[in-house]
Model the fold of this input.
Amino acid sequence: MAIQDTLEQLKDFDFNDIDLSNVGGWPSVIKVILLVIIFSLLLTGGYFLYLTDKQDLLARVEAKELDLKREYEDKAAQSANLEEYRQQKVEMEATFGALLRQLPSDTEVPGLLEDITLSALQHNLKIGSIELQAESQAEFYIELPININVEGSYHDMGAFVSSVASLSRIVTLHDFTILPIGNSNLRMSIVAKTYRYVEEENK
Done:
């Protein structure tokens, strides 16, 4: 019966009779509808004004949580392999020391020039010039360029380059040019670079 009475009140109610100055005199059904509308508006406004910012904050916190979890997993894996890392460090230091011993000292550079000269002669190349250039210093090492000019056959030059690259000291080859000259011979200009550890300066 209550539902039927409510429907009857709504049917008989004329919205033109609404008196905003006398809300208390409105029918109960209209008051309930008005309260529901106001409550809905409050909920909607509260959601957009309050919860939206909180949801953004929650999303940022969740993303940070994932980053922290990944960081924790990485550090846990590193901790589990700490002894292995220490062993690798010892091996790397030993390898680094061996590489440093391959870098010539000042007194060994003339010997290196002799090795390059001997290699050129052994491979039937005519030496135009082998000249030590000015040093240039990097952060951990000093670079010593050597300009090499030789003449000979293509295969002899290839054997010479291979021989220089396989010397017991570290030597790298750069900036080569090869030009034909008479009688099927070639002229090659190439820069060989060897290196010296910076601390050598202080010893």
